[in-house]
TrEMBL record:
It comes from the Bacteria. InterPro entries: AB_hydrolase_fold (IPR029058), Dienelactn_hydro (IPR002925). This is Dienelactone hydrolase. It holds the Pfam family DLH. Keywords: Hydrolase. Residues 27-142 form the Dienelactone hydrolase domain. GO terms for molecular function: hydrolase activity.
């Protein structure tokens, strides 16, 4: 597995599933879940900023090659890995992705180790909804959904789906009703997001905080980085995770 300078590499296993993780920092925990094609230099730069703010960051490596640049080769490699893995759901609606079970266990163990009000989690693009799925059954206190794009919005029904089973959606709504806020980021004309922000507003009400930017770009925190978006996420973690 590729080493990342300054980051501690280890494996985490839950329910007989193992993925490598990279860890750095001190303070409350934040799980940064990479988008396609993987832990890119831009994703790594964002994670470093979260560390610098005073958090322990854990980055799971789910697919791709760590620190590979975004390009046709890295995108194709990640797509192949996703397509053959049963951990990831790409098209199904009304269903929680299986990898959420592993991510929830990671969050529970990180919180048990570090304490505090809970763990932060940010998913992006293909993994954008994972932070919401984790909220259903893990101590997530600061969930961030950056341009959530799964299931792929090839039909209107898939474009509005949140990637949650009915039971998990009910659990999320209960936590949100109890006061947990959910932060979402997107470019308004990003077709990959579909109409999920409308669904999030309808299901979560005023505790869904939408940060939207003009245009049709995609990766709000990485490749098409919006500094305002990064600042909002960092402020969200600071506010929600202060113990």
């Amino acid at each position: 597995m590729t080493a990342l300078p300054g980051w501690a590499l280890s494996d985490y296993t839950a329910d007989d599933v193992t993925h490598p993780t990279y860890r750095k920092g001190e303070g409350s925990g934040v799980i940064v879940i990479h988008e396609i094609p993987g832990i890119t230099p831009q994703l790594l730069a964002f994670a470093e900023e979260v560390v610098e703010q005073g958090h322990t960051v854990v980055m799971p490596h789910l697919f791709g090659t760590p620190n590979a640049k975004v390009g046709p080769r890295s995108m194709a490699q990640a797509a192949r890995q996703i397509c053959i893995s049963r951990e990831f759901l790409r098209m199904a609606t009304g269903t929680t992705t299986p990898v959420a079970i592993w991510l929830r266990a990671l969050a529970r163990d990180l919180h048990a180790e570090l304490g505090g009000p809970g763990v932060g989690a940010v998913g992006m693009c293909f993994t954008g909804g994972y932070a919401l799925a984790m909220l259903a059954d893990a101590p997530i206190a600061a969930p961030v959904l950056a341009q959530p794009s799964a299931p792929f919005a090839v039909t209107p029904g898939r474009g509005r789906d949140l990637g949650l089973s009915p039971a998990d959606l009910d659990a999320v709504k209960q936590k949100v009703s109890a006061g947990c806020e959910v932060l979402g980021l997107r470019y308004r004309n990003d077709l990959a997001v579909g109409s999920r922000f409308d669904t999030l507003r309808n299901e979560l009400g005023e505790n869904f905080i939408a940060v939207e930017f003009p245009g049709g770009k995609h990766s709000t925190l990485t490749l098409h980085r919006q500094q305002e978006g990064v600042d909002r996420v960092l402020a969200f973690f600071k506010e929600k995770l202060a113990g």
